[in-house]
Amino acid sequence: MKHFATIFYTCILLSSIFSYYLFKKEKRLHKSRAKLPPGSMGWPCIGETLKMYTQDPNVFFTSKQRRYGDIFKTHILGYPCVMLANPEAARFVLVSRPHLFKPTYPKSKEKLIGPSALFFHTGSYHACMRKLVQTSFSPEVTRKLIPDIEKLAISCLESWANGQVINTFNEMKKFAFEVGVLSIFGQLNKKYTDELKENYSILEKGYNCFPLKLPGTAYHKSLKARKRLNHILGEIVRENKENKFSSNLLGHLLNFRDENGNALSDEQIADNIIGVLFAAQDTTASVLTWILKYLTDDPKLLDAVKAEQKEICESEHGETWSSTWVMARKMPLTYRVILETMRKASVISFTFREAAVDVEYEGYLIPKGWKVMPLFRNIHHNPDFFAEPEKFDPFRFEKPPTPYTYMPFGTGTHACPGNELAKLEMLVLLHHMLTKYRWELVGSSNLIQYSPFPVPKNGLRARFMKEL
Ligand code: HEM
Ligand SMILES: *[C@@H]1O[C@H](CO)[C@@H](O)[C@H](O)[C@H]1NC(C)=O
């Protein structure tokens, strides 16, 4: 989800000004025996934000980790922050003590997605919404979507193979969006799908911009699109009040009653739907884009993956396409390519929490109000857990990774409830792509853009051709 990474790409200087005051305050706060973790806080006014922006953020984290160890403090975007770069610490924050660390997002972003979306919450509201989302994206429910996901994959691929150069990331986003809509609403009529698509794309353009509410700014347009989305979703809800027993997310949201028998408000329904669309799109699309890049870079591996896919003959089709689990077993190499891509690219390179109280961990003090960042990418690139971490080697997943060293979908109370669906749609698309198409990359593909997820420059330009 963008919000984890994007926060880095917004409002650098202005927020740094606030940091000065926070910094002064935090000095007075604590008299506990535990000491703050090592690290440098940079200049109070600019924090270390500028440094982080002028370097690749991953290089920044890694050089800090080398200098100070796995747990270190820094100061970014106006907030004092503790970075955690080892599995035990990530587990402590996300799994064993989640009540001490609450999710935290800038208010401006919360407003765009919708403040009632589950990932902004903790406690009983979060638990209820999460259960709904988990049930709606469970393997039993998603498996029924397979034929429709296949249709979407086939039609996307066909649209690419018209001789034109495509921006792979943008095209993968369209696919992921359609799959998102399908899994949230079931079959939704084209009018609504188009309206959602158009307005959502305006919404997301403002997400990474400076949150200035002046007419003409991207943020302002984005807020207006968000209002229109409420309107569209309201209409869809009204039309579907009778369909509340369907097993998709909309059905579950409509059917929900709390302990007092109250239904969810339209706003809670809308915020959670936009939240899921948001969580589902760029994540999946960037992983798919990296898969294409890594496969193209390794022709021998590509041949092996193609061979595996061609083995899955038509007669077996029905049986293979019955769940993510069965597919992963029938196409182990393809599945490991996905796993290794999620490790190497680590598109969600870290997440944010905020200490709800003063917390002591391993003799260090994490003061109340400080941000805490488990650094997934650093853990995924630690040679102690993944030998030669820069090498793309799907075979390393022949052995399951040590617990908490591999967290592409996060872990604990906020771990990704869409991971089954994500893997399923990637496998389906890859199957059709590898058996019926070939492609070539256009232009240089070795630079990275942060959009805000890392993807190859220009979204990886490619030309697709149908294989005869
Ligand atoms: C390859 C694609 C995906 C990746 C890498 C990914 C990764 C993640 C990660 C790392 C988190 C946890 C964030 C945190 O702890 O702060 C998360 C949460 C979430 N993801 Fe995904 N995700 C993907 C696809 C999807 C899809 C397809 C859906 C749609 C159902 C989805 C829905 C969600 C939701 C709703 C949350 C918030 C859960 C909560 O706060 O309880 N994700 N995802
Ligand atoms: C956005 O949604 C509205 C409905 O609220 C619709 O009329 C419009 O065509 C959609 N697209 C754009 C670009 O505004």
TrEMBL record:
Keywords: Heme, Iron, Membrane, Metal-binding, Monooxygenase, Oxidoreductase, Transmembrane, Transmembrane helix
GO biological process: one example: abscisic acid catabolic process
Keyword Iron found: yes
Residues spanning the signal sequence: none
Record-linked InterPro entries: Cyt_P450 (IPR001128), Cyt_P450_CS (IPR017972), Cyt_P450_E_grp-I (IPR002401), Cyt_P450_sf (IPR036396)
Cofactor: heme
Regions that span the bilayer: 6-23
A GO term from the CC aspect: membrane
Catalysed reaction equations from the record: 2-cis-(+)-abscisate + reduced [NADPH--hemoprotein reductase] + O2 = (+)-8'-hydroxyabscisate + oxidized [NADPH--hemoprotein reductase] + H2O + H(+)
Pathways involved: Plant hormone degradation; abscisic acid degradation
Identification of the protein by name: (+)-abscisic acid 8'-hydroxylase
